[in-house]
């Protein structure tokens, strides 16, 4: 039965528009230049990073000591992954000519942070569901 629900759950999650995404869209609507898009996306990344930290701290507050230790280790590994992935993305885009790639680079980096913020949020939601 759960397998039948997974596509519906995944589809519903894809359609969610988050406040950060709305702010990014509003920002780029106001300044659709290449530099404006890059700056707006960098701001959105900062907002996702704050959301990530909020979710991490909330999750830490709900876990037992063993869970806290596991989350901390996972987050430290994720930070290494993020930094390494940022270097990879930087090196890929540095080989491309044209300013249009600057907002694309910013978008790729923001997406890495957004994904982790949403993963931590999903863990929080799972804990909440299991306790209700």
Describe the protein.
With 132 residues, the protein is mainly alpha-helical. The chain has one domain: Substrate Binding Domain Of Dnak, Chain:A, Domain 2. It has 5 helices and no strands. Helix 2 (19-30) packs antiparallel against helix 3 (34-62), helix 3 (34-62) runs antiparallel to helix 4 and helix 4 packs antiparallel against helix 5 (101-131). The longest helix is centred in the last third of the chain and has 31 residues, at 101-131. It is flat, with a radius of gyration of 17 Å. It starts with a helix and ends with a helix.
Strand content: under 5%
Characterize the main sheet.
Answer: none
Average pLDDT for all residues: 91
Shape summary: flat
Assign the CATH topology. Answer: Substrate Binding Domain Of Dnak, Chain:A, Domain 2
What's the total number of strands? Answer: 0
Q: Can you give the helix content as a percent range?
A: over 70%
Query: Total number of helical segments?
Result: 5
User: What is the first-to-last residue Cα distance?
Assistant: 21 Å
Which H/E pattern describes the elements?
A: HHHHH
**What is the CATH architecture annotation?**
Up-down Bundle
Regions with little confidence, pLDDT below 50 for 5+ residues: none
How much is the radius of gyration in Å?
Answer: 17 Å
Q: Return the structural class.
A: mainly alpha
Structural domains: how many: 1
The CATH C-level name is Mainly Alpha
């Amino acid at each position: 039965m759960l397998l039948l629900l997974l596509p519906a759950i995944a589809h519903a999650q894809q359609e969610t528009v988050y406040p950060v995404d709305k702010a990014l869209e509003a920002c780029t609507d106001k300044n659709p230049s290449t530099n404006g898009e890059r700056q707006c996306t960098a701001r959105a990344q900062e907002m996702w990073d704050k959301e990530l930290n909020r979710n991490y701290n909330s999750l830490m507050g709900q876990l037992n000591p063993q869970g806290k230790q596991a989350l901390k280790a996972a987050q430290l590994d994720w930070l290494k992954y993020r930094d390494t992935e940022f270097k990879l993305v930087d090196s890929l885009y540095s080989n491309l000519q044209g300013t249009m790639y600057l907002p694309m680079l910013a978008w790729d980096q923001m997406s890495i942070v957004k994904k982790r913020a949403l993963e931590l949020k999903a863990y929080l939601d799972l804990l909440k569901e299991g306790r209700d």
